[in-house]
Specification:
It is a single chain. With about 450 residues, this protein is α/β, with parallel strands linked by helices. The protein has a seven-stranded mixed β-sheet, with no helix packed on it. It has a six-stranded parallel β-sheet with strand order 2-1-3-4-5-8, with helices on both faces. Strands 11-10-17 form a three-stranded mixed β-sheet, with no helix packed on it. The protein has seven helices and 23 strands. Helix 3 crosses helix 4. It is globular, with a radius of gyration of 22 Å.
Length: about 450
């Protein structure tokens, strides 16, 4: 009789675990980017979720309109968002996700400043009633420095007003499961000295463990930088396990037969990126030869960005490399080269920036950018025209982009980042054109 009861209990427990895992996989997930970033950074994570069978209609990424924080969180500044602004925008995004799916709660996943926004919304913005789980990857949960007497209104001061209020008492909120992911020593915003916050050699008052929270499940992933800790395949595996209760079968991204792409054309204001669309910008897409960088005929898509700045949809080939040519008043023409898109995404954002003053005298130039990670000497392979570009710091990876002046516009240039390779054509910044190789991983 005792044996029968034990077996019955075991079956009930297994059924409950299975049901719990199933329920977790039906929750909508809202991804929240960091300071100065956009929803576009999450598209490879979303691809991995989809490739593991997660319903694409339950995966959302929010674009904060003005993604950069002001120096003083209590003051209004052009193209800057206070912590209150961010929490309100996240609340609206959660409401949209709940209405779209009919779910009662969501999972929130955030990187960097996104962790501040998530925690602020849950604790002070009513989010505790709508959030089942918060996964904070590379969160600046105790600031990037701790100095109560300096910059007291900085959102990133662990001893300032905002962070002190956020961490007062319990660092987590009852009823919401909290998970943090952090690097061992390579997060540039969790360092004992202030090389990356304009205070070289000075103690920050925080350590490598600053992204952790008391009361959370705290996970360390060695060797990843401040962005990779959210966007790397190894980070995805931890996020997937937190959401579903099991390891993913794979972290690979499965290809679709005909990926449909869309996104924003966005720009720059008050010395910072914005996620507000540029209406009237033009986008022309060319398929290119992966070996030569030459265009394979006429454009395969041409559009004028609508009132909201969106430029799609465009049906791509999953194995084709593309050149996006983007023009808008007040910006140089951007020739953005991309490695193949294996899956659909509505977050293929095309961000425009002013011309780089360091390249103004160059006959030609090529830039490379790694939005979902930084460039680490000795850890990563990154070259332009077979050479390692200058300007990438040694030690802790802290730079996501690099550029190289070249002798001739139009020349074919190989740009390599680890396992990704692009052939691009150099452009002349002096003539109002820039060439950028942008990588997925």
């Amino acid at each position: 009789m005792i044996g029968l009861i034990a077996r019955t209990l075991a079956v009930l427990i297994l059924v409950a675990i299975g049901a719990s895992g199933l329920a977790a996989q039906t929750l909508p997930i809202v991804f929240v980017h960091g300071n100065g970033d956009s929803a576009a950074l999450w598209h490879t994570t979303i691809w991995r979720f989809e490739s593991q069978g997660y319903d694409p209609s339950r995966l959302f990424a929010v674009d904060m309109a003005a993604p950069v924080a002001p120096g003083d969180d209590t003051r209004i500044e052009e193209n800057r968002s206070t912590s209150a602004d961010q929490a309100a925008q996240l609340a609206a995004a959660v409401t949209r996700a709940l209405l779209a799916t009919g779910a009662g709660k969501v999972v929130l996943v955030g990187n960097s400043r996104g962790a501040n926004t998530i925690r602020n919304y849950i604790r002070f913005g009513g989010g505790h009633a709508h959030v089942a789980m918060a996964i904070l990857a590379g969160g600046v949960n105790h600031g990037v420095f701790h100095a109560p007497g300096a910059s007291p209104n900085s959102e990133f001061n662990g001893g300032g007003r905002f962070m002190a209020r956020l961490n007062e008492g319990s660092e987590v909120v009852p009823g919401v499961r909290f998970v943090t992911l952090r690097s061992d020593k390579l997060d540039k915003y969790a360092q004992p000295t202030g090389e990356f916050i304009g205070r070289p050699g000075q103690p920050t008052g925080i350590g490598y463990d600053a992204p952790q929270l008391a009361g959370a499940e705290n996970i360390v992933i060695p060797g990843l930088d401040h962005r990779e800790i959210a966007f790397h395949a190894r980070a995805f595996a931890e996020i997937w396990q937190a959401v579903t209760g099991k390891r993913p079968d794979s972290t690979a991204i499965g290809a679709e037969a005909a990926p449909i792409l869309d996104g924003l054309v966005a720009g720059f204001a008050n010395n910072a990126p914005t996620n507000l669309g540029i209406a009237g910008a033009t986008v022309e897409i060319f398929e290119i030869d992966a070996k030569s960088g030459e265009r394979r005929g006429d454009s395969v898509h041409r559009a004028t960005a609508r009132f909201d700045g969106r430029w799609g949809p465009f049906t791509a080939k999953p194995d084709a490399a593309y050149e996006f040519v983007v023009t808008a008043t007040g910006y140089p023409a951007h020739h953005i080269y991309r490695t193949p898109f294996p899956r659909s995404s509505r977050y293929v954002h095309l961000h425009l920036r002013p011309a780089d003053p360091k390249l103004k005298d160059a006959k030609a130039a090529v830039s490379m950018t790694r939005p979902r990670g930084y460039l680490g000497h000795g850890r990563d392979t990154f070259t332009i025209a077979g050479k390692v570009p200058e300007g990438v710091n040694e030690g802790v990876p802290g730079t996501s982009a690099a550029a190289m002046a070249l002798p001739e516009a139009g020349m074919a240039v190989a740009v390599v980042l680890n396992d990704e390779r692009l052939m691009v054509r150099a452009e002349a910044p002096a003539h109002g054109r820039v060439a950028i190789a942008e990588f997925h991983h």
